[in-house]
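Teaching soon. Invent one.


***
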Amino acid sequence: MRRFFNLPNVILLSLALGVLFGWIAGSAGLLKAGFLLELLKLGGDLFKSLIFMVIVPLVFVSLICGMMSIGDLRKLGRVAGRTLVLYFITAALACIVAIFLVNAIKPGHAIAKETRDRIAKEHEAKQKEIVGKIKTTEHTPWTFIRGIVPNNVFSVMTSNSQMLPVIFFALLFGLCAAMIDSKRREHLAYTFESLSLVMVRMIQAVMFTAPVGVFCLIAVATASIGIEVVKAMALYCVVVVLALSIQFFVVYGGVIRLLTRLRFTDFVRACRPALVTAFSTSSSAASLPVNMECVNKRLNVSTSVTSFVLPIGTTVNMDGTAIMQTVATVFIAQLYAIDLTVTQQIGVILTAMLAAVGTAPVPAAGIAMLVIILEPLGIPLTGIALIWAVDRPLDMLRTVVNVVGDGVAAAAVGTMEGEDVKYVPEEAAVGFQLPTGDSQYP
């Protein structure tokens, strides 16, 4: 009994109770406004804020620790190369699966024009807000590249929506730190490893509030989903969920099977706390600290690999988001009877892969990036309102896929580096491991 009521199981129980409470309270009209709704929103927002509070320091410190612990620049290049190749392959497979399914099932042909216009009108205000925000910045390959290099690293560190500049600065800092003389490097490495442990302890403390936070987040999300809208958009949702399922079980399961000695069921069991966090918060960034501890502690992947692969993956590896953007683009084109050529659909795949890289790891950011894909193809941006109407549950699911993809890459890269990647039962797992023992430092 005591083993059953461990933290991951309690979080899962609170998630189920949140769904049940949100459905009942939403049907009874108890969460339309008032004290109860505000109280639940406060609980969910506080939980997310507690996690977001440590994300930037954790990413910064972890990347530096990872680079300094790798030490050998040739090994660093090898780890980086393998990581990026894996991320590129899984993203390409995600978009190819998505484009095949949406063309085969044709969900856009299942919605009548009157239903489409009604849903679009109901969510017109949100659509205009999304389009207005994304259009304030010019999005080209050149602006994307310029945005990677910050002109003020402290300003980007204050925003959880700009992770690429933080990652770039951390990588540059870690690379330069690895080049200083050995004695100073050891002192600096010890300092950053100690900071990393502090961040992990903070996350462990925050996770004790997770059952309450998850309950609040899921209850509000469940109550806010209009069942009539979901019914109208059901076939679109089916296509997205089917593509996400294939990516989860077939693509990621295949990578685990081919490149590691793990069973996929053990991998999922080890990463369960991170997946629950991803589902409830709809944020890859919020799930990063939990995912790092799961991969390091429950899968025995070294801190040097974990600290390098996962923070980068949180920003550049968004397979679930790429799937949604690919399906949504073709779906909206079908709604407005726009026939996309093979060349245009290949362009959709490539643009979705790039747009997913530029998507902030926060809730609903993937929808905003749809503007970049739709506009060049002449597809009406009003279709974004329909996607927004049913996006909340899909956002939760695709965030799980994003987080799983990062963990899969870390396990695969760790195995390729000769590490003993294996499932470690919870009762046998120890705390977040330092890459080297404390004894070597003065």
In short: The radius of gyration is 22 Å. Confidence is low (pLDDT under 50) at residues 431-442.
